[in-house]
Amino acid sequence: MTQHKADLLQGTLDMLILKALSLGPLHGYGVISRIRQMSGEMLDVEQGSLYPALYRIEQRGWVNSKWEVSETGRRAKFYTLTRAGRRQLDEEEAGWDRLVLAIAKMRQAT
Amino acid sequence: MTQHKADLLQGTLDMLILKALSLGPLHGYGVISRIRQMSGEMLDVEQGSLYPALYRIEQRGWVNSKWEVSETGRRAKFYTLTRAGRRQLDEEEAGWDRLVLAIAKMRQAT
DNA sequence: CTACCATGCCTAATCATTCTAGGTATCATC
DNA sequence: GATGATACCTAGAATGATTAGGCATGGTAG
Q: Of all helices (H) and strands (E), which one includes residue A49?
């Protein structure tokens, strides 16, 4: 029962979504697979987490959405990172780095 | 305006508390300062987060508590890591490492 | 002696975010 | 005709952290 999947922590999902969209516009369903692929199959976002998160993120102006047609010919809502979303991603990445550093310090502490 | 404090993420607090107690028994109030010190002043746990967390953690059998007298001569509840708590800490650290790795992969992904 | 600050504990209410567990519809494949 | 993949969505529960208090003791500054 080797555990290779990593559980998400509350607060990281927005960063992951923004990161996925930083590689280019994508529809919601695709964001899930892109995150899975980018993370080397380690991260798995549930639909029930994703769609509400996308809604939140759009409300905050970090992405725009537009109905288009996907690669498979189906209707799909494509999300594009805005300039504010790019800034937000940078901030979240910086915050993540601070936390990782702080916890690394905890680890070494005697 | 350099930002050096790191914000906690939901789910990391238990690990921090267990880690602090892995250096030896301590009362609640002291856990806060030990975490601050171990993290190089980067992590600051609020009392309103700490005490409920300690309660949870004790319910789960990860720590024992005993009323004793602190260095300053006051009554204080001292928490000691149990064997199960040690195991839990190991698991949470492993889980943290997986998440950090997964997000690092996301970062490199093109 | 009184005010304040540090030490030490605790709780209630709120908030934010994620997960569970559904539901809908289309299209391809078996 | 059933199943599975693609694609969207929501309601409700659970989790956990924060805010904003409260209480008590003891030391120190004024």
A: helix A47-59
